Fold this protein.
Amino acid sequence: MHLHQLRYFLRLADKLHFWQTAEDLSITQSALSRHIKSLENELGFQLFERNQRNVRLTAAGQLLRTEWQRLLDELEAVHRHARQLSTGEIGSLRIGHSGSAAYAWLPRLLASFATRHPLVQTELIETMAFDPEQRLLTYQVDVGFWRAPARNAALCSTAVFSEPLALVLPDSHPIRAETFGSLADVRDEPFVLPSLTTDVPYIQELRHLFEQYGYQPRLTITSDFGATILNLVAAGLGLSVLPMSYASSPLRGLRFIELPHASPVFMVWRRNDTSAVLQRLLAEANQLNTIS
């Protein structure tokens, strides 16, 4: 039994006329008759009652007309779903990201991507600074947006966005943007930052930034979470240096002074990942890329 035979049967069941059905199918009437006869022989019963003037469905034919149409509709839906999966029209993406990326370029990318690909589901997973690549290598996420390029040879990365760093102060602090010179002005202030002892590229950037001004900051509290750092600064527990995108936080009691230092965001993915959905996201990211 072949699918084209089922389709021939269903068309004949609608028309109840061999010549007209054969014309619609662009086959000869004798070929149509052979296909129907072959189908009946395989089933072991008649599907149509025929005479020289009329064609009508048998009771068994009426049942199969309903059930085969349902099955073919379901089969077509499955095929359509598979085609959409293969082309990336539908699917899912687990996106790892640093906390700061969620304040910056990433929401703009996701909004644009969702407009073009409304059937793709995305899940955002905030990752710690010290383990992002492991999330990709162990297939916990499909793509990442982090403050460091890929270091593992199994991964690819490209810079997609860059933004200035900012000195973050409580609103009550006497330093203002008009009077601020450089980070040298706040060398004696307490700071709230991530631990500066790790070898994460973003942390290395921070260490190098302070070294340019001849000191390492005095840390009162350390945290890897930008939102936590903002709350601690607002509470007067110290100053911080964060990507400028955190200025969009709704938290009150903070001021941001832009620094002459930039921090890039990298898109990172597995080198061997050929997912069509991922390829569509890569294309979207390249269109919105503000660096290259």
